[in-house]
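To illustrate this point, we now present one chain and its tokenised fold:
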Amino acid sequence: MENFTYYTPTKVVFGKGTENQTGALVKEQHCKKVLIHYGSGSVVRSGLLDRIKTSLDEAAVSYVELGGVVPNPRLSLVYEGIELCKKENVDFILAVGGGSVIDSAKAIGYGVYNGGDVWDFYDFKRQAEGCLPIGAVLTIAAAGSEMSGSSVITKEDGQIKRGYSSNFSRARFAVMNPELTMTLPPYQTASGCVDILMHTMERYFNQCDNMELTDGISESLMRTVMKNAKILKDEPANYDARAEVMWAGSLSHNGLTGCGTDGGDWATHKMEHEIGGLFDVAHGAGLAALWGSWARFVLDARPARFAQFATHVLGVTAGADDTETALKGIEAMEDFYHSINMPVSLSELGVTPTPEQIRTMAEKCDISTHHNAGKVKHLSVEDMVAIYTTAL
């Protein structure tokens, strides 16, 4: 096993009606003015935003608001939020929404605290020295951003999607009411489940001797998400299934499933970022479309690990050797994706990049990973071109 530091400073308030505690949670932070940051309207239509405002009013917390966050959150809105926070002397950001809203809030927090161009952090030009404190009221179980130090932002100029990680942006608190996810469209729920799975799978597939305990936690989490993703396909209002998925989303990306590993692979995530930046697809769906092609390409570098995944997570009966077992596992995973109406190819995702676009995505991914994509197997530009092409 590898040495590790496990850091989880986020206070979690989980369960029915917990959004009504938001005002008290914010007040605990001793802030003077809050930016309520949210998406494109669902929190308004559902009445959640009004309940949040009422809670803040009852706690005598002053606030301003900025909506308009979209999936694959845009840098232009981040800039707008930075200027608003400076103008209004905001000293706390409350993200009400899913991963995109929380990621946008983190970027705004970096921009206000550090000065200069916030894109510098996502473009690898400098490191943050701090971030405005963040709180989250979660409405989508997917990204795990409510307990992670990660955020991903899309720069419209050049269609560049980049991530930045720092413990400075970890949320002070996360309010999680599974009921708030019940109005999500089935496609978004399924896409979120894939994202949760992939946050654990990226860490699970690595090149080190793994801790038995971490493996056991990871495998149980993945089995739980798969089981409940199928339940939610037929029973979208099933509270217990929503709760299992929501808690799994946080645990999959707060560092727990990476304890004792080398950090994991992450090539599928990085490659999907380029698809998302170019075609603006749902992140989880993009991951599902790519994963099988990536897995078959790198399988020969760690067949025993893929075989363990096949037997421990997917319940596959072992074949004649690790490679046969692993291939059966990859096929079983793709069958699961299909079972919840997720794509397993780019054409099923609804995008058909040209050879020129494929090469551009591979070259941009190579740059974003500092020419070091992949941990199971290091991927060159040509390797990524091959994976994208196979995924068509």
